[in-house]
Amino acid sequence: MARSGKFSGGGGGLLQWLGLAFVIVLADQFTKVLILGYYRLGDSTPVTSFFNVVRVHNHGAAFSFLADASGWQRWFFTGLGVVAVGFMLWMLKSHAGQRLFSFALACIMGGAIGNVIDRVLHGYVVDFLDFHSHGYHFPAFNVADSAITLGAACLILDELLRVRRGR
Question: Nearest 5°: CA angle at 152, between 53 and 36?
């Protein structure tokens, strides 16, 4: 994947993207501190007919993948997150001038750091956003997960636009 980028100028510099990741980490951790302070595990507050604020502990990864493992997954997912953040830092440094690509990486990186902090501090990730409809509950998630999802969608869009420009 050959990409050309610059450190500053019209596309934004590395510090801009690190700042965005930092804001995501702050928002994620602030909301989790509120949930941990005001909710006990399993508590739920209905907000609308399709949305609750809950307190859930996810010991696994996305959709509670490996949540029932014996505990090794905490450090595996922590290490994976640290390695991923290192790779994204390198990519951001190399391509900071590519706005959509860098925005996507900053969102994913901020979300990854937020969830790594949870794993290190608590041994689990705090989830609290619970959407449901007609008896179906989407797995609870948090601000970090939302940022990761937004970043992944933007990475896909960036690649589609890159391929389209290449034609």
Answer: 25
Strands (E), the chain: 44-46, 51-58, 125-133, 136-137
Examine the residue annotation and report whether 145 is marked as an active-site residue of this protein: yes
What pLDDT does 19 receive? 96
**142: how many CB neighbours lie within 10 A of its CB?**
25
> How far apart, in whole angstroms, are the C-alpha atoms of residue 73 and residue 33?
23
Write down the catalytic residue from 118, 127, 130, 158. 127
- pLDDT averages per 10-residue partition of the chain, 167 residues: 43 86 98 98 96 91 56 68 88 88 96 93 94 92 97 96 84
Helix ranges, 64-142 (H): 72-95, 99-122
pTM, 2 dp: 0.83
Using only C-alpha atoms, the chain has a radius of gyration, in whole angstroms, of: 17
Structure confidence at residue 135 (pLDDT): 87
Q: Is 74 helix (H, G, I), strand (E, B) or coil?
A: helix
Of 28, 118, 130, 145, which is the active-site residue? 145
Whether 118 sits among the annotated catalytic residues: the reply is: no
Rounded Cα distance, 72 and 69, in Å: 7
